[in-house]
Amino acid sequence: MLTSLSTRRQGTPHGCSLALAAAALIGATRPAVAQTAVARDGVTLRLHPRVGDTLHTRLEQLTEITAARPGTTPRQRATSVTVLARTIVQASRQASTTVLTVVDSADVHTSDSHDGAMAAQAERSLRGQRLVLQLAEDGTVEIAHDARGGVVSREVTEAMASMPAVFPRRSVAIGERWQREMPLVSSNPLGGGSAGARVRAEFRLDSLGRHGDMAYVSMRGEIVPDGDRPGADLSGHMTGEMQVDRRRGWMTDSRFTLVVMSRVAQPGTASAPMRFLTKVTQRLRTMDKW
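Above: the chain sequence. Below: its structure as tokens.
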């Protein structure tokens, strides 16, 4: 997951109640002021939630894998993961934020009956997890450990992380683009090793909400293998979009689709390589309440 993943509020925008006269005046003038400021100073997107905030996160991921070898019938498998978690902001400094993420619910389902035991194990490993993360302003996970200080696996960190490292390190104008590289979401939601690749992504600030509090960002990217991968061929692409609540300093809604094509040869054999098509669809929403 873009862990991660990362944690994102869908929801209903946070409104404010104003006296009618004040609302009429501010509503008539604030958009023009906001647009002028954007044109002059650009837009800052960064992680800076308030200490004491509790952000409720719902992660939904569907992974569909098709495996085939020339001359054989393709095999298909689908696995869905739903995780409900709370992220409590424990400390917020100028350059980093410390949060405690608690998994309240995890449901894993697979269409492959042979993976039933692994799905049940994945649920047990996620439920009740308490993970402490120190996050940089751009969403990068600087430190990750469980509530007792123990090391946690990369898979658990990705599943629980609520903010991927996607924010630009500078102010950007509407329509401007920036690039980031992120680890490739694991193609196996039931666990497994590193995918051995990364996503080279380009983000674009598409627009702002009426008062500039909500930023709308689109993203696209390509899959780049990590170094040499003997016997393997891997490529793919990613598209998506997200909403950032600038007032709360947190991503509230993100959706992305990742498609990975790979070909894996069995070492020491003359058989044709296995071909895999993996499609990952993920939505991550963060809100004040579920």
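The first strand starts at residue 54 and ends at 68.
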